Amino acid sequence: MNRFDFIQPITIEDAIAAWRPGAAWLGGGTNLVDLMKTGALQPELVIDITHLPGLGTIETLPDGSTRIGALANNSDLAHDPGISRRFPMLAEAILSGASGQLRNAATVGGNLMQRTRCAYFQDPNAACNRRVPGLGCDAREGENANLAILGWSASCIATNPSDFCVSLAALDAVVEVQGPAGRREIAFTDFHHLPGDTPERENALKPGELILALRLPAEAAQFATNSRYLKLRDRTSFAFAIASAAAALRLESGRIAEARLALGAVAAKPWRVTEAETLLTGHIPDPALFERAADAALAGAAPSGGNAWKIDLARRTAARALVMAAAGTPARMPALPASPFGELTGEPTHA
Amino acid sequence: MPDILSRPFRFGSNSGQPITRRDGIAKVTGTAIFAADNMPDRLLHAVIVPAGIARGRVTHLDAEAAEAHPGVTHVITPQNRPPLQGDPSAKTMMFSFRIEVLQDDAVRYAGQPIAMVLGETLEAATEGAHLLSPRYDVEPARVRLDDSPSFAFDPAGFGLPADVEHGDVDAGHRAARWVVDATYETAAQYHNAMETHAIVAEWDGDRLTLDMPSQALAISCAAYAFYFGIPAGNVTLRSPYLGGGFGSKAFATGPQVLAILAARMTGRPVKLMLTRQQMFGPVGHRGATRQRLRLGADDRAALTVIDHEGLAETSSFDDFVEPAAGASQGLYAARALRSTHRAVRLDIGTPGPMRAPGEASGSAALECAMDEMAEQIGIDPLEFRLRNYAETEPGTGRPYSSKALRECYMQAAERFGWAGRPLKPGQMRDDNGLLVGWGMGTALFPCPMFAAEARATLRPDGTALVETSAADMGQGAWTALAQIAADSLGLPLEKLEFRSGHSGLPDAGVAGGSGHTATAGGALHAAGSDVIRQLGEIAAADPASPLYGSGNAGFVARDGRLYVADDDSRSEAFAEIIGRAGGAAITGNGTASRPPEDAERHAMSSHGAVFAEVKVDPDLYQMRVTRMVGAFAAGRIINPRLAESQLMGGMIWGISFALHEEARHDPRTGRIVNADFAGYHVPVNADVRGLEVITVHEDDPYVNALGIKGVGEIGITGAVGAIANAIWHATGKRIRRFPIRIEDLSTA
């Protein structure tokens, strides 16, 4: 590990004032510290934000929206009764990610800031435009079976690893940030960037900006009865998605009044597909309709390497998530959240 | 550093009893001291620098930058590495590997140590290692089986099965009414014990003390003594606890030799513990294989031939070739049988023995091919195996020392509910619409026995000390061996002090080959019996003893008393016999090895049958093993709880082999891109649902005096094929490459 300065400010203002280029915010540390150990990231200043006041609360605001402090940990959020009642898809997505130990440590803000798990980003010996602009992309000719099929560019084919963020994108969350120039808000779907020619610009944060909270609009709770997160992976727990989808429907008189659909593990950002949502709106839910919506969701998909197989799989995942959403949110969180095996009866709770 | 266990926490009775691990509480409460827990005064921390390329030459290391870092004390490179007294390329014994210890600037695989940095703290040494910033002359990496030409290789010579040919193979092919000709691939797997390789080395003159997890204490001492030019007796190796080994802790490794060298060079104790990432390279692995199976069967579903060709990777500088085709040698009664091997030299670390070396990969391919043949013929896979049941060893005709495989098939099938399984695939669904498939495979593992020594001392107070340098990797040797020792002395376990895990004790041989309980246990049994024999002689010659004059009848030891063999009314407590004889402790010595004539006359193997149920999502292809039942016949079971746990562990590794485990190389740099536990998958608890083990008793008078065959590795065999066959049965898709992934099913 390289040598770095370490500070623990106790006010947000001090934290922001302390920031300088080359600094990194430290929350739960579940991603940053690993990358510092391997040498993939070498911040000169680590600012521990876990002592900042007021960033860990989950509250309902007067306008009916829900505000989640950036330092709330993933476990607390997933098990918050209000969250699981109003936004069960968020809880399901969180519980399908990482492991219990990691979820206990990882923060909400950190979840948004997760770096790609592309092996070449994580390996300091490899060329990666996202880690070092202009160095090249070893993933293009390397092990890329699980990399992007949507929104990738010649300079980067990485995917965003978060499950939580897929559901946030579907529910129109808002990110509250504060920086040297004051506070502002970023629509969730604008938060993560596609790589283009500047894959190193992973998100919309300006230099020195710190995530304070997430906000879910009151309307997002209208999907509570018909929303699911579905995640495919090569083992049942503690594995990143091969394909995932967050699907939410608001049904009125048997018709889809409003739909939300976002895909995970397919692009450098959670892949919200409003075209598919429009296609669903006004129709009676049925599998053929969901297939058409899923087709629309994958429009424009193209393999970035040896991953053409993922396109059809992502399409099937999207269609299934819609079927599951239409069937209704389960009364209790499945023992294996977000899993095709989650509905097995008698499943022990050990996800 | 405790050499023995703290006082045991729970005792039951002895052999045959499901006693819990005597070291269990020490381990789960953190009081067990593992090698890397040792922190002697003046300790230096060592960190190796792994090569970032797979082939080429190191052209530059920034030693100045590293040395300038505060806390870094030494940078060891090929330029300044002190000499070794033994040639690191020498093969001094059957289990020797060529080791990489900075002998030159060549890079032979990614992850090879190219320098070592020492520091006052681990952090300083780690940063020093980063600062070396190596530069290379790079040559193209060869990491895939097709990247180099193959050559014929006979795996004999490493204690592995040699290539064989029995019967007329060509005639077997010609006589076939049914033919399977299929090629299977298995991925490279890396031993990833919970405890990575560690060592604390300290010199005192020409005497060396090592705290290091070891599966083979005497072999390790001899190897290190060779490299450093000292008598083996000058090496003290303490290995009271191992956090797993799986075959990778039985040999001297380059990083550990470098740590010892660093300790000698600096005159200070040196500690090295590999990171998880560093486990992928210098400490062995299970080499990737490609296996062609050609089976022939006649009209009556009798195998006319098994023709098994194995191709496996080895390194550019040493030979270890996963002997996969050997798995076909002793199982089915084919009229003709051939198993041959070829090897490919790649820019990888040298493979080595990893739990069920050869048998695991070979069984995976063989059991799949058997299933494909049963499908072709149109008979039940179990029925097909029964029709080809080997009553004597295929090829040689030797009788088995014991073989309860038929009982394993029947009991496991019954328990699993195999009857009524549809022959055709894709016929079963569960209530949730998931595809359900059932598959099975036969398990087979040889039961070798090595040489071991043990010592037993009966103290005047009637308690005993037994000693042998056995290795408890977590399998429970400390418990099972103590049970055997207590029985041999006729003592309850609480009267026994068991010392192990120290090279100063009698040599218990290697904990490997599934032979440790039989081998070390045999020596302990002999040592205890020697004590009882001496005690009997004393009593029989002592007119004051109730046993006086009964020497011809023989004696039986039980509950701390010696009885006349045929007369329970005549007995005396051990302590009384010793007391009258002057109160001196009685020491007995024992050795164990298998008489060559027994080994020659009989085929000896453990057997088993594994049945698996998988469920597969019909649209999304996610799959999961939902049930497994394995029945195993492995001679006498000393501790059913530990044996079943071992067998379960093997079956779980079967899940891992079938569905998860794979080291993936970048094709250009040759680096392993998933060298950590986030990327290198092994099953989590949620991947292992119903798992049931049945042990079928065998009385085997030939394998060894105790009738023990061993259970350490057989659980993997059979299981891999059973799972792949179940996936076919669920989906109709034959995936002939392991691990089987969603990607494979979605593109098949």
Automatic annotation (TrEMBL), chain A:
Q: Alphabetically list the UniProt keywords.
A: FAD, Flavoprotein
Against InterPro entries, the record matches this protein to: CO_DH_flav_C, CO_DH_flav_C_dom_sf, Diverse_Substr_Oxidored, FAD-bd_PCMH, FAD-bd_PCMH-like_sf, FAD-bd_PCMH_sub1, FAD-bd_PCMH_sub2, Mopterin_DH_FAD-bd
Record domain FAD-binding PCMH-type: where: 1-221
**Which Pfam families does the UniProt record give?**
CO_deh_flav_C (PF03450), FAD_binding_5 (PF00941)
Q: Give one GO molecular function term.
A: oxidoreductase activity
Source superkingdom: Bacteria
| SMART domains assigned | CO_deh_flav_C (SM01092)
Q: What is this protein called in UniProt?
A: Xanthine dehydrogenase family protein subunit M
Naturally occurring in which organism (per UniProt): Paracoccus alkanivorans
UniProtKB/TrEMBL annotation, chain B:
Superkingdom as given in the UniProt entry:
Bacteria
Per its UniProt record, what InterPro entries does this chain match?
Answer: Ald_Oxase/Xan_DH_a/b, Ald_Oxase/Xan_DH_a/b_sf, Ald_Oxase/xanthine_DH-like, AldOxase/xan_DH_MoCoBD1, AldOxase/xan_DH_MoCoBD2, AldOxase/xan_DH_Mopterin-bd_sf
Cited Gene3D superfamilies: Aldehyde oxidase/xanthine dehydrogenase, a/b hammerhead (3.90.1170.50), Aldehyde oxidase/xanthine dehydrogenase, molybdopterin binding domain (3.30.365.10)
Molecular functions (GO terms): iron ion binding; oxidoreductase activity
| Pfam families (alphabetical) | Ald_Xan_dh_C, MoCoBD_1, MoCoBD_2
Give start and end of each Aldehyde oxidase/xanthine dehydrogenase a/b hammerhead domain: 29-140
Matching entries from PANTHER family are given as:
DEHYDROGENASE (PTHR11908:SF153), XANTHINE DEHYDROGENASE (PTHR11908)
Please report the name of this protein according to its UniProt entry: Xanthine dehydrogenase family protein molybdopterin-binding subunit
Origin organism is Paracoccus alkanivorans
